[in-house]
Amino acid sequence: MITFTMNGLEVSVEKGSTLLEAARFYGFPIPTLCHMEGLSPYGACRLCVVEVGEGPRARLVTSCTYLAEPGIKVRTASNRVLRARRMVLELLLASCPQSKIIQDLASAHEIRQQRFRQEYEDCILCGRCVRMCEEQMMAKAIGFRGRGAKRSIGTPFDAKSEVCRQCGGCIYVCPACQLRCTYTEPEKAICGGCANLAPPCAAKESFDDMMCYMDPCVACEISKDK
User: N or C, which end of the chain is more exposed by having fewer CB within 10 Å?
Assistant: First the structure.
């Protein structure tokens, strides 16, 4: 067992446990987007940052990838941590403003507006779909491509994948696919998210005219039979 301090409380966890696992076990809430049970830690979204250490040497680390160490001091909700999370959430809102998950996280962190240029990229590069396809579906049909601002997710050479079984797992785990209707203008009142007419995910080229089959709908959590 490894013993250390988290939010002033002495805690003990098994060797190999991450700070995120320790925090959840002891009831300290830490928001995440790229992390998902059953998938390998990735640390892409940076929402799960915590502060490790004290004084000028204290640093922010991603709790989903940082392993617990004996004697360290961890703070999961210091002012520095909360400022970092709010900044990340504002950037995510600029990229994917209609994501229900991101909207709810922003509201919980008391964000009323985001200060960055709206881009509507519909992908936050969290890597959930890539890891789901490789680690759970054993297909590796999609992956990351490009670098920097040109980084994206899709099939090799944009060609239709021969190993994709069209299981829908990538859609199910994607935070960007879980849309919320936010428009009030008549011409934009229907977002189309419930029908998944144009899914903002890597599977949109593979599924062609396939409609969303999930019930309740992952877009707005409204059952189709109501």
Answer: C
Range 1-121: architecture per CATH: Roll (3.10)
Q: Identify the pLDDT of residue 12.
A: 97
Written as six digits, the tokens of 64 are 């989903």
Burial of 172 (0-12, 13-18, 19+ CB in 10 A): middle
Pairing state of beta strands 49-52 and 73-75? antiparallel
Q: Where in the chain is the domain with CATH 3.30.70?
A: 128-207
pTM: 0.77
User: Selecting from 1.10.1660, 3.30.70, 2.60.120, 1.10.1040, what CATH number does the domain 128-207 have?
Assistant: 3.30.70
Contacts of 221 (CB under 8 A, 6+ apart): 100
Q: State which H helix or E strand residue 202 sits in.
A: none
DSSP 149: G
Q: Per-residue pLDDT averaged across 61-79, rounded? A: 96
What are the tens digits of pLDDT across the range 42-59? 999 999 999 999 989 999
CA 160 to CA 157: how far, in whole Å?
9
**Residue 218: its H or E element:** none
